[in-house]
Amino acid sequence: MSTIKIINKKTLGPSKYKLENVTYEMQGNDGKPVQKECEIYHRPSGAAILLYDPERKKLLLTKQMRLPTYFNGNESGDLIEVCAGLTDEGETVEEGAIREVKEELGFRVQMLKKIGSVYLSPGADIELSHLFVAEYHPDMKVAQGGGLEKEAENITILELDYEEVLQQLKQGEFQDAKTLILLQHFFMNVK
Fold it and tell me: How far apart (Å, rounded) are the C-alpha atoms in residues 166 and 149?
């Protein structure tokens, strides 16, 4: 196990979450100290939730524009994803997940099943994403969904058949890591 020694930290400009350049030293493979630099984005933990209706064999997903993907080959910038968001200050990850489902999808869920936690970009971001699945039924709809207007979210809600999503998954149509993980888990363990 390597020992890490922080040599310097420098915050890189104002932003919603802290972005800093960290110079550190660690033990190299040859046992000698190696000095490195890394930009680290300090985003809070988040939650990603896949909702499924076992009676009607439906899944709820979202479609929204993700500008960074536009700069890396996604012509429309749109991604199809599971419901997800960052945890607000003072709330648990589970409370954040339930809040995000209501804001983005318009459903009130209570029974979340956690399947794990993952770092989505561990080379640059401290965010730990907690992954959940939960059942939903049409009678659990309590709001319009689509995201928060004050956050300028413009989320399209997609209710899709299990088989349609499975085919899209097999064809490599999903490009979001948390969505891939949750869909693979679902089709291997829940369906």
Answer: 32
Task: Indicate the angle between helix axes 162-170 and 177-185, nearest 10 degrees.
Answer: 120
104 alpha-carbon distance from chain centroid: 13
Report the run of H or E that residue 9 belongs to, with start and end: strand 5-11
Other CB atoms within a 10 A radius of the CB of residue 171 amount to 8
pLDDT by residue (tens digit) across 107-156? 999 899 999 999 999 999 999 999 999 999 999 998 777 776 666 678 89
The CATH number for 129's domain is 3.90.79.10
Task: Round to whole Å and give the CA distance between 129 and 84.
Answer: 9
Task: Provide the number of structural domains found in the chain.
Answer: 2
User: What number of other Cβ atoms are within 10 A of residue 18's Cβ?
Assistant: 15
Q: Strand, helix or coil at 1?
A: coil
Tell whether 23 and 80 lie within a shared domain: no
* Distance, C-alpha 77 to centroid of its chain: 16
For the segment 120-130, what is each residue's pLDDT rounded down to a tens digit? 999 999 999 99
Q: Give residue-wise pLDDT tens across range 18-47.
A: 999 999 999 989 989 999 999 999 999 999
